[in-house]
Design brief:
The chain is an alpha+beta fold and about 170 residues long. About 15% of the residues lie in helices and about 30% in strands. The longest helix is centred in the middle third of the chain and has 11 residues.
């Protein structure tokens, strides 16, 4: 089974809590750097041996619980741009890291629709990876939809303010 990371749904994460990027298969027709496959290894995920998307539980500001994934980093890097947390809903995925450009208002409106909440009910979001990872769980909080500003600092869309924090191996 192969899927694009942005096609993972709740059933996929329920069936397989860890997905490995199929980087060794990029030359295969229809596959690229976004192609993932279920991880069927035993024991905790070792980021030194590949790139993975691991099941993560999210808690919105109003107490709503959601499921999604993040990508643990080989050097235990915890920057939002590296672990790229994503919430998966029955209506589609909601990316919390948006890359080099701020998400437009139409994208934010769609994300809030998928979450079924407004900004004040959503942020801050806390999260904790639930798949076993060498070095421990990744936990953290994000205050808005993050993107990279031209001065290379992290900014937040949607009127949310405050920092992004994440750590490995212990609770916040």
């Amino acid at each position: 089974m192969r899927k694009q990371i942005y096609e993972l749904d709740l059933a996929d994460l329920s069936r397989y809590p860890v997905w490995a990027y199929a980087l060794d298969e990029q030359a295969a027709e229809g596959q690229d750097e976004y192609t993932v496959r279920p991880y069927k290894g035993s024991g905790p995920v070792n980021p030194l041996k590949g790139s993975y998307a691991v099941k993560t539980e999210f808690m919105l500001a109003d107490g709503t619980q959601r499921t999604g994934y993040l990508t643990p980093h080989v050097n235990r890097e915890a920057d939002v741009s590296v672990i790229q947390p994503v919430i998966v809903t029955e209506h589609g995925q909601v990316m919390l890291w948006y890359g080099a450009f701020a998400p437009g208002d139409h994208i934010l409106a769609e994300y809030y629709r998928r979450l079924g909440n407004n900004c004040d009910d959503v942020f801050p979001i806390t999260f904790r990876s639930v798949a076993r990872i060498i070095g421990g769980a990744v936990t953290g909080a994000v205050s808005g939809f993050a993107y990279l500003n031209f001065d290379r600092t992290r900014r937040f869309a949607s009127g949310a303010v405050g920092p992004f924090t994440a750590i490995y191996g212990e609770a916040l």
